[in-house]
Amino acid sequence: MKIKLHRIAHARAGDKGEITNVAIFPYREEDYPRLQEALTPEAVKGHFAGLVAGKVIRYDLPYLKGFNFVLHGTRKGGVSAALDLDAHGKAFSSALLEMEIDWPEE
Amino acid sequence: MKKIRIGAGAGYAGDRIDPAIELAEKGAIQYICFDCLAERTIAIAQLERQNDPRAGYGQFLRERVGALAPYCAKGLVMVSNMGAANPSAALDAAREAAGEKRPGPLKIAAVTGDDVLEKIAESLSPVWESGLPVREYRDRIISANAYLGVDAVVPALRSGCNIILTGRVADPALFLAPLVHEFGWAPDDWHLLGAGTAVGHLLECAGQVSGGFFSDPPFKNVPGLSRLGFPLAEVGADGTAVITKAPGTGGSVSVMTCKEQLMYEIHDPAAYLTPDVTADFSRAELLDAGPDRVLVRGASGSPRPELLKVSLGIHEGYIGEGEISFAGEGALARARLAAQIVKDRLGHRSVAASDMRIEFIGFDSLLGPIARRAAPPPLDIRLRVAVKAENRRTAEAVGEEVEALYLNGPAGAAGARKFVRPVIAVYSSTIEREKIEIRVETAELK
User: Which residues of chain A does B261 touch, with a Cβ-Cβ cutoff of 8 Å?
Assistant: First the structure.
């Protein structure tokens, strides 16, 4: 079945210039390997089509059991010059948590 | 074993003041650090200073110093970058604000040396965002501030200052400096400096690690959010620490809040660049150590970057915005029609499409295409048009065109608002360390 990441994980976004990072962690640490398979940088870039113009890099966090996604080419001009209502990109965490992935029935 | 208790008094210039007082009162802390200088804040402060040579220090400086002075006179040490663009003026203001409380003897310091505008204005160092040399921006540059590290703060701590006000000091360095001072960590002990930087990074946004920016019911619940307590760390000489908060305060410090904050604004977790160290959080562990207590260990580091980062404030014209709402069935269609009207009319004023953004608040302003895939559209939609322009008049036209939709646009246009603000873009470059001259100015209260 398909499930929204919001049901199984929590996330926080941060900004530096036109780069936004979103760190995401499963609520249950045992779900880490399954997310590692599902959340490829390509899949995440596809989810963010129209919001992320540049590359998407994933850093794995095996000690914290999570992933740090670094999204290049967001919010043109950065927080001080972007025309976006959300010039900081704070809502990028909610945006990632809207992504749907395949998940086994429990 | 010696432990240092260090608290966070603010996470940004406009942050709440009462949790800092609560922390000083109930947190049994020796140090309280206030990070009040976002990238853009210092450029705005520089503009204030240009208009008034006694201005340009942080918002709420007087309030914060006044509130904390009685605790500082009893041994608490306050460190803050609230000096912003004018640490010397901040020193005078702090002396006055503290003096009004008659707290007893106090030594206050202002640290300068981060303002490198004169040194860098003709520089050939490339601006990261454009690749052009800094000197190409000389007509539009407002401010240039180097990110200083612990070596800017430690001398004032050594000379026994109770309140230390700096300009641009890297956020985690405000917290790392007391640790270096207390434990005598060597300036090239990259492991300990990395561990201390992790502690500073966890604390520097204050409430963001103790339950702020976190609650998401029913999945993530935080008790007492209206009484959110600011965090503190209990740090050992080996760099391990417990993140916690004062007893009886609202909020929550958990492994989950710490995970989110440790990665906040981080790119490569193995290479977080600061003036003091290249910090490595990739093997950091966060462990539950009891209610509202999280043990942090395993962070490390490697040699610091050779050059210092410089933050440049650059004039970049104006942003104008206009907003107006539509309701009921067909609200989105009417909002789109309204947007097209504004676009057509602004086209006559030669505003380029690339400098214009149209959003529908309540529909797609935050999520863009992700939200547009969801159906059906809501019954309450707010059109927002934002434009960037070289001159103020063009930027103002956006709000005027949106407002005029009241009488001249689609049916039921409601609640128009308009805004204009100057744009200070923040770009980055670098400067050689040997060009920095750190100076400490002090004032004493008897």
Answer: 12
Q: Is B343 exposed, middle or buried (0-12, 13-18, 19+ CB in 10 A)?
A: middle
Is A95's CB within 8 Å of B285's CB?
no
Q: What is the pTM of this model?
A: 0.96
What is the C-alpha separation between B269 and B252, in angstroms, rounded? 24
Residue for token digits 């927002």?
B384
8 Å CB contact between B209 and B232: no
Q: pLDDT by residue (tens digit) across B267-321?
A: 999 999 999 999 999 999 999 999 999 999 999 999 999 999 999 999 999 999 9
Q: How many domains does chain A have?
A: 1
**Cα dihedral B384→B390→B395→B401 (10° resolution):** -90
CB contact under 8 A, B263 and A85: no
The reply to whether CATH 3.30.70.120 applies to domain B317-423 is: yes
Buried/exposed code over B170-189 (b: 16+ C-beta within 10 A; e: otherwise): bbbbbbbbbbbbbbebeeeb
Range of the domain at A61: 2-78+88-101
Q: Does the ipTM exceed 0.90? A: yes
Q: Which residues pair with B385 in a beta bridge?
A: B322, B358
Question: Is the separation of the CB atoms in B205 and B199 below 8 Å?
Answer: no
The bridge status of strand B106-112 relative to strand B163-166 is: parallel
Residue A25 near residue A66, CB atoms below 8 Å: yes
| pLDDT (tens digit per residue) in B349-386 | 777 766 899 999 999 999 999 999 877 889 999 999 99
Q: What is the 3-state secondary structure (H, E, C) of A31-55?
A: HHHHHHHHCCHHHHHHHCCCCCCCC
On chain B, the residues whose CB falls within 8 A of the CB of A18 are: 129
Looking at the DSSP bridge assignments, the partners of residue A13 are A22
Alpha carbons B429 and B133: distance in angstroms, whole number: 9
Q: What is the DSSP letter of B291?
A: T
